[in-house]
Specification:
447 residues; mainly alpha; binds 4-fluoro-L-phenylalanine
Length: 447
């Protein structure tokens, strides 16, 4: 039975697609993960390796995913089924769907923390300390579950609205807002005392800090940040018009993602040093305070030190920014399993969105009470899962579907692609450089 076209959907415009895909890419990974990793794992050296991973490995894989998606017009499982009779590759698609489900299950909890902190800033301003403390307690399972459930409901509602009326409409409003907020906040922070120490740490590389662990982390971060390796962009590509130029669209999305990660670093790393100049402890021993502490403790401490209306506005706006970025990403994480259920099991969109969303919410509730699962899930489904998915997508195009067929698909929207420099170089990346680099990285990390 064919799926009703209204349930599958399509993007209304090129800008709509780019904002939606950039919305998927720009998320907690950019505004929370990236600056945190820069701060704790290597400063400017990390930034440099991250940029190399993004442009040399991430961008070619993004073009690959979009081509598979547009050619097949299907979710990750259906896409591989449509393009090959080989029985293994649909399992790669299924692995992507599973990674999406599991990443969404813990991503929602962290998104909930961010959303809760926006209210914490208000409660703190109003002097309601008990309420503020309740919201900052990331170990409080009930509180985590409650806010994560609100966040999941918002995601489900948008997804059940469909591709153009739901995803495209929501991201078209949220992305410009997000960019505006981050630019204004960065300018404000850069003019505060101490900011330049952070700028130096962020932009002057110390090459001796580069090692296999740093490279593995930067590559994982690039995959996660660009939403690659689990078929989110196969799915988004499946709604893409044949008139669109795939490499150009992928370039826009990559640059938007890197640009916002770079800006977030330029906001958060200097903000840490501003906090230090204001007397807040940012080092534990000789190490920068790590992970969740940076964004969920040091920044609120900074906003409280600034105090008054300015502190309140900065605090609320920053955590709303984080929540908006997270929401445009949870949308794409949920869309992958929902598209799978719509295409492969002929379920209408609304039913699929609510059924799958509420199912994932059950896992989210477990994670809310058992937050140590976040690290485990992150390692298996993100750090390992996405690069493994990325290698298999490269192998599929290189040896099964063939780079030539992918280029044929790109011809529509980019006439003459085969003769262009891109058309000559991209197959080399997909056949050799990307899989070799990703595999080397995964293996060297284990060794
Ligand atoms: N790219 C998102 C971020 O940086 O937060 C996370 C993500 C979204 C990963 C969607 C994978 C995905 F399919």
């Amino acid at each position: 039975m064919a799926v009703a076209s209204s349930d599958r959907g399509a993007w209304n415009s090129k800008l709509g697609f780019i904002l939606a895909a950039a919305g998927s890419a720009v998320g907690l990974g950019n505004i929370w993960g990236f600056p945190t990793k820069v701060a704790t794992e290597g400063g400017a050296a990390y930034l440099l390796i991250y940029l190399l991973c993004t442009f040399l490995i991430g961008f070619p894989v993004m073009v690959a995913e979009l081509s598979i998606g547009r050619k097949s017009g299907k979710n990750p499982v259906g896409a591989f089924k449509a393009l090959t009779t080989n029985k293994f590759f649909p399992l790669v698609g299924l692995w992507g769907v599973i990674c999406g489900v599991m990443i969404l299950s813990f991503y929602t909890v962290i998104a909930g923390w961010a959303f809760g902190y926006a209210f914490e800033e208000i409660f703190y301003f109003l002097g309601w300390q008990a309420g503020a403390d309740w919201l900052t307690d990331t170990g409080n399972g009930f509180k985590n579950a409650l806010i994560a459930a609100v966040f999941m409901m918002a995601t489900i509602r948008i997804i059940s609205g469909g591709v153009s009326e739901g995803i495209e409409r929501a991201t078209k409003t949220m992305m410009p807002l997000l960019i505006g907020i981050i630019v204004i906040m960065t300018i404000y922070v850069l003019f505060q005392p101490g900011a330049m120490d952070g700028v130096r740490e962020y932009l002057l590389p110390d090459f001796s800090r580069i090692n296999p662990t740093l490279i593995f982390s930067a590559m994982g971060q690039a995959f996660f940040s660009l939403s690659l390796g689990m078929g989110a962009l196969i799915t988004y590509g499946s709604y893409l018009n044949k008139k669109e130029n795939i490499p150009q669209a992928a370039a826009f999305v990559t640059v938007a993602d890197v640009g916002i990660a770079f800006l977030a670093g330029l906001l958060i790393i200097p903000a840490l040093y501003v906090a230090q100049a204001a007397g807040i402890e940012i080092f534990v021993g000789d190490q920068l305070a790590s992970s969740t502490n940076l964004v969920f403790q040091i920044l609120p401490a900074l906003f409280h030190t600034i105090g008054g209306a300015v502190g309140l506005i900065l605090g609320v706006v920053f955590f709303l920014l984080l929540s908006i970025a997270a929401l445009t990403s949870t949308i794409s994480l949920l869309e992958v399993p929902v598209a799978y259920v719509i295409d492969e099991h002929n379920v209408p969109r609304k039913k699929a969105a609510w059924g799958v969303g509420l199912g994932i919410l059950v896992i989210t509730l477990v994670v809310s009470f058992q937050t140590s699962l976040i690290g485990t899930f992150d390692y298996i489904f993100n750090n390992l899962g996405l690069p493994i998915g990325g290698v298999l997508i490269c192998v599929f195009i290189a040896f099964v579907w063939k780079t030539d067929s992918a280029l044929d698909e790109m011809e529509s929207g980019f006439e003459g692609v085969k003769k262009s420099l891109f058309g000559k170089v991209w197959p080399i990346f997909i056949k050799f450089i990307c899989p070799a680099a990703i595999l080397y990285n995964i293996i060297s990390n284990f060794i």
